[in-house]
């Protein structure tokens, strides 16, 4: 298992690349067992596990150019979907500052970051996960050019390590289709520092699992993830929640191998509601679900009871609903979603997705 110091780049020859650019495409992910609560620097209070998505992704091009010999300040420009975004710069600058100890070469360059999403920004889909992991991938592309000897495992582990320092959940977007982040005694080589691929053989029922994302609310988040995680500090139920999450991950580890999809549904839905329960019982407290979120959940429960189909839901820290179901039930599930659920979405917007394989280079 790698340690923090293993990820420090040794640029002993002080080599600086000429101007260039690297483009990476990285997906979002949806946690099945949630992480909610962390310590610095971005260390999770409990392990989590997620499905890597395929159609919800960020494409980022990192343009790097050598700073002038008299220039001390690094210039960073962020262009999101064709428009310069000054409001995005503080988060990116903080990320670059955090990772400089591990990639000291990054301070030799002025940077232009051009990025776009395949889904609405701040829509409850983990845009920080896909965005930060795409940027970390590009930065590792520079490191690979400086040191071609680094192997693929190291490249991906360090990309996840760097991603985590920008957004915790981004650590789970580098690889797929199922990724664990956080040290857990039942998951060999699991780490608080980076995500690792689920190490066991997945039962066929979970291969290419489907995720239809119902966009109940496409507005800005009511509460940022950082604020939400900080509310777990001193939360009266925090210790019990961390214990529950780790127990659920152990249960889910068995389920993903055995194919017990009824148990899968129980764990995943319980985890989603537990996440929101933590926010509803924090100080200050928040209710992030909307009336239509609850209507969708009840519709799913009624449909599952009537049909015995294996359709279930999970939630991120927002109002939108991820509807999960096996590929073998795609026809019935999609008909139900179109006929019964889409009307609860803002402007009838939804996204059809499925399991993906993680980050990739874009030529």
Helical percentage: 25-40%
**Which secondary-structure class do the elements indicate?**
alpha+beta
Which word captures the global form? globular
Kindly state the number of beta strands.
14
Strand coverage percent: 15-25%
Uncertain runs are: none
Mean pLDDT: 93
Please count the helical segments.
8
The CATH architecture of the largest domain can be given as 2-Layer Sandwich
* Number of separate domains: 2
CATH class of the largest domain: Alpha Beta
Radius of gyration: 20 Å
**Gap between N and C termini, in Å?**
31 Å
Structure characteristics:
363 residues; alpha+beta; Ribosomal Protein S5, domain 2; Alpha-Beta Plaits; four-stranded antiparallel β-sheet; 14 strands
Question: How does this structure look, described?
Answer:
- By secondary structure, the protein is of the alpha+beta class.
- It has two domains: 4-201, Ribosomal Protein S5, domain 2 (2-Layer Sandwich), CATH 3.30.230; 209-354, 2-Layer Sandwich (Alpha-Beta Plaits).
- It is built from eight helices and 14 strands.
- Strands 1, 4, 5, 6, 7, 8, 9 and 14 form an eight-stranded mixed β-sheet that branches.
- The radius of gyration is 20 Å and the shape is globular.
- The model has no long low-confidence stretch (mean pLDDT 93).
Q: How would you briefly describe this protein structure?
A:
The chain has 363 residues and is α+β, with helices and mostly antiparallel strands. The chain has helices spanning 89-99, 127-146, 152-166, 225-230, 238-258, 261-280, 291-307, 330-341, and strands spanning 20-33, 38-39, 43-44, 48-66, 76-80, 83-84, 109-117, 178-181, 195-197, 210-214, 312-315, 321-325, 350-354, 360-361.
């Amino acid at each position: 298992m790698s340690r923090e110091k293993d990820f420090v780049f040794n640029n002993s020859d002080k080599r600086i690349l000429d101007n260039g650019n690297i483009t990476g495409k990285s997906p979002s992910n949806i946690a099945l067992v949630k992480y909610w609560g962390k310590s610095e620097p971005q260390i999770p209070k409990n392990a989590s596990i997620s499905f890597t998505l395929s159609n919800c992704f960020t494409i980022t091009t990192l343009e790097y150019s050598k700073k002038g010999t008299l220039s001390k300040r690094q210039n960073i420009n962020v262009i999101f979907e064709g428009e310069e975004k000054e409001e995005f710069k503080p988060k990116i600058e903080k990320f670059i500052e955090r990772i400089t100890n591990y990639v000291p070469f990054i301070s030799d360059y002025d940077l232009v970051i051009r990025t776009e999403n395949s889904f609405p920004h701040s829509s409850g889909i983990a845009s920080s996960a896909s965005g930060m992991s795409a940027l970390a991938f590009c930065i590792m592309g520079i490191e690979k050019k400086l040191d071609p000897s680094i192997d693929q495992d190291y490249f991906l582990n360090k990309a996840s390590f760097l991603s985590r320092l920008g957004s915790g959940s981004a650590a789970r977007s580098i690889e797929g289709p199922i990724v664990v982040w956080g040290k857990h005694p039942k998951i060999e080589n699991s780490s608080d520092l980076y995500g690792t691929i689920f190490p066991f053989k997945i039962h066929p029922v979970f291969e290419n699992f489907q995720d239809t994302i119902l966009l109940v609310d496409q507005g800005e988040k009511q509460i940022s993830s950082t604020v939400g995680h900080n509310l777990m500090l001193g939360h009266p139920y925090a210790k019990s929640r961390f214990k529950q999450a780790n127990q659920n991950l152990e249960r889910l580890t068995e389920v993903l191998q055995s194919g017990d999809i009824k148990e899968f549904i129980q764990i995943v839905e319980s985890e989603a509601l537990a996440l929101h329960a933590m926010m509803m019982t924090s100080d200050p407290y928040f209710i992030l679900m909307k009336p239509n979120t609850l209507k969708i959940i009840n519709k799913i429960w009624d449909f599952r009871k009537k049909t015995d189909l294996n359709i279930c839901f999970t939630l991120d820290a927002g109002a939108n609903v991820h509807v999960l179901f096996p590929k073998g039930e795609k026809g019935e599930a999609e008909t139900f979603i179109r006929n019964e659920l889409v009307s609860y979405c803002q402007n009838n917007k939804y996204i059809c997705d499925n399991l993906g394989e993680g980050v990739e280079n874009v030529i």
